[in-house]
Amino acid sequence: MKVKELINALENMDEESEVQFSYNYGDHWRTQVASKIRDVEEEQVEWSDYHCMNRVLDEDDDREMECRDPAKPITTLVVIS
Fold first, then answer.
1. What is the CA angle 27-30-35, rounded to 5?
2. What sign has the CA pseudo-torsion 3, 69, 24, 19?
3. Partners of 62 in beta bridges
């Protein structure tokens, strides 16, 4: 989803409504839970073959940055957490 698509999706909603992030809790019943949003910011990510999704890079972790695969591109995304 692009930022403009998110803006369009929110355009007709009540501005006073609370927004939360939904995810699968990972239990036996695959319960969908909702959690408060802590932050919205731009983050650098790279594809993780292990997770089969993007992972957020920790630029302050020198070891992580040294060990990352330089062949994998770093992308900057808007991340809701």
1. 85
2. negative
3. none
For the chain, helix (H) and strand (E) counts, in that order, are: 2, 5
Task: Report d(CA 40, CA 2) in Å as an integer.
Answer: 14
* Concatenated DSSP letters of 52-65: TEEEE--TT-HHHH
- Domain parsing of the chain, residue ranges: 3-80
Its pTM stands at 0.73
- Tokens 């909603």 correspond to what residue? 13
In a structure prediction context, what are the per-residue pLDDT tens digits for the chain, which is 81 residues long? Answer: 999 999 999 999 999 999 999 999 999 999 999 999 999 999 999 998 888 999 898 877 767 667 777 888 899 999 999
The DSSP 8-state label assigned to residue 74 in this structure reads: P
Interatomic CA distance for residues 64 and 39, integer angstroms: 23
